[in-house]
Amino acid sequence: MLKPHHEIATEVQEIKASLQKIKERSERYRFQTIDHQSMVAQNVRRTDPRKDALYLEDGDVVGIESSRDELIGWLVEGSSYRSVVSLVGMGGLGKTTLAKKVYDHQLVKGHFDCHAWISVSQSFNVEDLLRNMIKQFRKARMEPLVAGIDAMDEDSLINELREYLRQKRYVVIFDDVWKIDFWEDIKHALIDNNTGGRIMITTRNMKVATFCKKSSPVHVYELQPLPPDDAWELFCKRAFQFDFEGHCPLALEKLSHYIVEKCEGLPLAIVAIGGLLSTKDKTIFEWQNLYDSLGFELGRNLHLVRVNKILSLSYEDLPYNLKSCFLYLGMYPEDYSINCVRLIRQWVAEGFVKEIKNKMLEEVAQEYLIELIHRSLVQVSEVNFDGKVRRCRLHDLFREIVLQKMEDLSFCHVLSREESRFEGLTRRMSIDGVSYNELKGFEDTHIHSLLLFNPDELPKSYMSTFFVDFKLLKVMDFEDAPLDHIPEDVGSLFHLRYLSLRNTKIKMLPKSIGKLQNLETLDLKQSLVSDIPVEIKKLRKLRHLIAYYRNNKLDFSLAWEKGVKIEKGIECLKYLQKLYHVELNHGGVDLIKELGKLRQLRKLGVKNLTKETMMALCASIGKMNHLESLDVSSISENEIIDLQSISSPPQCLQRLHIKCHLEKLPEWIPQLQHLVRIRIFWSKLSDDPLKAFQNLPNLLELEISNQAYIGEQLHFQKGGFPKLKILILENLNGLYSLMIDEGASPLLERLSIGPSPQLKEVPSGIQHLRNLNDLIVRDMPKEFEESLDPEQGPCHWIVKHVLFIHFPYKIGTGNYKWRRTLCSKQIN
């Protein structure tokens, strides 16, 4: 079948654009055409970019002494069983350098009978690796080589090694291991002979670091970037090695600090950039020029090519689908802390995520993200209370490499204040801080994804033509945009799968929203939308509807958070996973019954629950077998709600938030073995609720606040709350006594108390909470606070082990600031 003329013309344009990019790259990198004979004549050799790390001078190494000593301890001390030490971290952190310092140390050399250093790399041959081990072991002991070793097959080499090591204490360093199946290739050769054999590996991948724990004890050492002072010292040693006696001149100090910050503690980059600057004139012009063009220099300058190669190795090792996911992070601005849920939904919308039987696409995408983190390509910038990754980011230098690859592959173009013009073809565009005037030139584009950051304005006149010019969009992310209107033309974006209007001034969605039949995510959080059009029921592929507004100018109350009104008909949304929040007083019992037909729901938030609608909601919740998060709020603080009638509570439930007056706690709560967080407010319970919660095996966070409990005493009994890390007891006006037995909540890290005007004595038992890092004392009675004074307070002994004691005070409505913080003497 012949293609239409316009498709052929488009492909020709794309080919021409690709050829132009190849030409530009050739000029940028100064490529030359080399025939076969000239290549042979020049005897071109590939060099291992890691080799320099084996021969670093002491002046190139800073701040590794404590890490070196700890690793040496793991090698020479401990049990007589064979064990593994894994040194893990991103490329360029100095793993090879540190491992070589450990390997060469006299304590290590003297402790072991034989030793070997093996460079593994991405593509290794098992027989060559085993043969190399035998040769190094024998060479270290000045023994002759085994006759015929070069002709031995794998089984013969394994047997030779096992026999040789049978009575010897050995140490082997495997540098730069990439594959998790590496252990299967070598474990039989390195015998566990009960003499204290040690294996040490360096790797960028956490999965590789821990894989061998099935058959050997493993110590994992995560190498961290250099702290600022060490990074500065290393930079000055390199940049001023020939001038100023190794010290930075005052005129260059500010720029030098900017350059060091750009390296983010990466020794490889600091040494390379410092070495390059040591050859430059010590002028502000020269240094500013390098700082401004660092991304370009990474691909061109001979001093920095090793940095580029080493960091690029991690990218090149990725499977094809993960490469696209990784490049996508480059669409976010520099130093941006990326919301992982946002990123995952965009990956799904882009089609990057492969379907796996019995798994949601979002679950598979989460595994992709963890894989990128394990491979040290993505940094964790924030974790949730349960240890799951909340936000992530790219290292600045990785981002420079990503930007270059995105350009080379026409994956995405980034428009920013520094580069606000674009000519050519691309499938994705990220726009950061660029005036909407720069976007007017885009007509009938082939762009599939558009991420908008920090725009100055988006007038209605521009938005009225926007959707005509971007008809092929799959991802449209306008979070935080100064936008107060969405025209009817949004319905023309037939391919749209992801639409975020989060934190905009949009008040109303057009009815044409119902035409977006491929839409999977509609994010209206912190927008001003209060009514969802009835046409939403046409979005049969919708997976996530997030629509609520928190008024942070108000004190915390039921009015602080509002949901949206939804009409009947949402039972058609069979793929919906997240619905947060729905106001139940506008859809009636019929709407609530429809909720029970949304069997894929993972997260549900409902507002304005009443006595009349309570039974219908309980019946619907009982049908939600996959529900993981439930947030229920009543129409008023005095509306008594009975949740006991949920006959089959969702057994997968992990998060439970109840904001309503309960006569008693539902008896089904103790059955939910997967609960990790419980928050209850305004429940006015007279019986101690702790008895219902204390045996939940996975509970990490518990909040009982705002008159959720009106009794006088709370008692944390021995053995209760085995995993609890966060405990919040706020605005409990009747609380007179808080008791904590020894052995209760042994893992508690954060405790927040107050205001509780009747609680005038520091709770007995806090001294037993040995893992407590933060104690927050919020508007407590004067005698309570004074008793904690480290100089004269009679109760300070109870809390002297706590790292930080905070005393916040209220400023205006709904906000607190730290008045003062006491620090434990354990902190320097």
UniProtKB/TrEMBL annotation:
Signal peptide: none annotated. GO terms for molecular function: ADP binding. This is Uncharacterized protein. It comes from Fagus sylvatica (Beechnut). Keywords: Plant defense, Repeat. Residues 331-401 form the Disease resistance protein winged helix domain. PANTHER family: DISEASE RESISTANCE PROTEIN RP, DISEASE RESISTANCE PROTEIN RPM1. The lineage of its organism: Eukaryota, Viridiplantae, Streptophyta, Embryophyta, Tracheophyta. The keyword Repeat applies. Residues 463-778 form the Disease resistance R13L4/SHOC-2-like LRR domain. One of its GO terms (biological process) is defense response to other organism. Residues 65-241 form the NB-ARC domain. The keyword Zinc does not apply.
